[in-house]
Amino acid sequence: MTPRQLRALCLSFNAAVEEFPFNPETSVFKVRGKLFALTNLDAEPLTVNLKCDPEDAVRLRAEHPDLIVPGYHMNKRHWNTVTADGTLPDRLVRELVEDSYDLVVAGLSRAERLRLDRP
């Protein structure tokens, strides 16, 4: 997955925005003010921090120990750092980004979730 594809994917979700609260290099993708992906799109290899169900996080780390690791500077139970340099199938990376977005949306209030369904 290229940096351009990763950015486009993150911004394709309803109400997703890209912000730079830490520095100009670190893209933070949020939905309704809540972080669902964090990356430096210029880094090599390209990595992205994504929220993950704790049980899935452990399983994914075991299945891909060199490519999916506990989230760098994040809560290690709920976040993974995923290497998105083309080694993992793009389909899997897309699924992990979507899962992260869905987990964050699920944590929003009912009113916020309802607002996401409106144009």
From TrEMBL:
<dbReference type="Pfam" id="PF04237">
    <property type="entry name" value="YjbR"/>
</dbReference>
<protein>
    <submittedName>
        <fullName>Hypothetical Cytosolic protein</fullName>
    </submittedName>
</protein>
<dbReference type="InterPro" id="IPR038056">
    <property type="entry name" value="YjbR-like_sf"/>
</dbReference>
<dbReference type="InterPro" id="IPR007351">
    <property type="entry name" value="YjbR"/>
</dbReference>
<dbReference type="InterPro" id="IPR058532">
    <property type="entry name" value="YjbR/MT2646/Rv2570-like"/>
</dbReference>
